Each structure stands twice: as C-alpha cells, then as structure tokens.
Amino acid sequence: MTKLTSSMPCVLITGFAPFAGESINPSWQAVSKLDDNLIAKHRVIALELPCEFNRSLALLYQAIEQHHPVLVLCVGQAGGRSEISIERIAINIDDAHIKDNAGNQPIDTPVIADAPAAYFANLPIKRMLLALHQGEIPAVISNTAGTYVCNHVMYGLLHHINQHEPHIKGGFIHIPYLPSQALHHNGAPSMSEDTVLSALKVLINEAISTKLDTKVAAGTTH
User: Which residues form a coiled coil (predicted)?
Assistant: First the structure.
C-alpha cells in the first residue's frame, strides 16, 4: 500500500455546502470521501467551499496557493439534471436568481471586472466523457454552468489559471441530486453517491493521464 506524503503531486477537488434550503449538498457528500485518496499516483485533497459569491473564490485561491495542485476539479449540485455534466465553459457574469448563503444576490455583475467574457475548461473533456460512458455512467458535455456560484467559481478558477498558473488543469463538474434529495423534488432525477464517487475517480484519472483530447461529437442543437 502506497503511503501518502505531502511531497506527492496532488489534486484539489472541491464541493459546496448546502444551499437553497437543502440539508445536504451531494457535491460535498461525495468529494469529502475522496480526501486523502490516491488516484493515478496523486494525493487527493478535498475542500468544502461555501455557497457564497467571492468568499468561495478566496478560499479556493488560498487552497491552490497552499497545496500547489496539478489539477483542480470543482464539483457542484445541479438539481434537475440526470447525468454527470462535464462543463465546457464559464462566463464572466453573476446573475443570481436567489440569494447565496451570505445573502448576496449579484445581478448582471462580472465575476472579475475587465476580464475576458469566457474561459474554456482546460481539461480533456471528450476523453473524460468517453471514459464515463465506458464505465456505463450517464454523462454529457454541458455548455452552461449557469450564472450562480458554480459558474462564479469555475470562471474564477480558470481566470486564475490563465493569469497565474497555466500549468494547472482545471474545470467543473455538475452532479444530480442524491436519491434522498429527489424524494422532496417531485419527479426530479437523481444519482447514487456510489455512482458519483465512481465517476469522480474516473474523471480525475482521465484528467491526469490524458495529454491530448480526442475529437468526438458531443454538442447539442439547443
């Protein structure tokens, strides 16, 4: 058994605290169980982010500075989606339809002033998608991370990478409700925690090991 040490290359994976009246957030429920795991010879460090604009990014930046990860994978809840969603793009806008956990509700506000309109994840998203399909895990490429805290964190992460640490791979994954949550949302799809955990392990492994993405159709018509 390989002993984990602080000198090992590491992966930073984040989940969110519960929000919008939920008692749990499936992202942190799953991500927390990966803390101190070894995946593809990389130590995994899990971090819970608050569901708050600005403070979530401040804590993410602190963790990046502290741990020097080679990969940062942020994970969030997307209630209503039925598959693992590998996010392709983050846009430079906060437009909150509900308040965050600190009572903030930015509307039509840039995530970062005078920064580019959008950033693409610098992950092998198509290879990651194929790896999940090979594992019989439902997954799609998503072309919107929303305009709430998830997009805020994804955009802020990719801006930081672009401006300061281009050697880091980074991106965002949305996951469905857990079954226990879906019980309270009539007709909402869900995914078991075991499946989510399996998916995250596959995604981390593929992101680390893949040097060049592949070209396969995974777009949408609307």
Answer: none
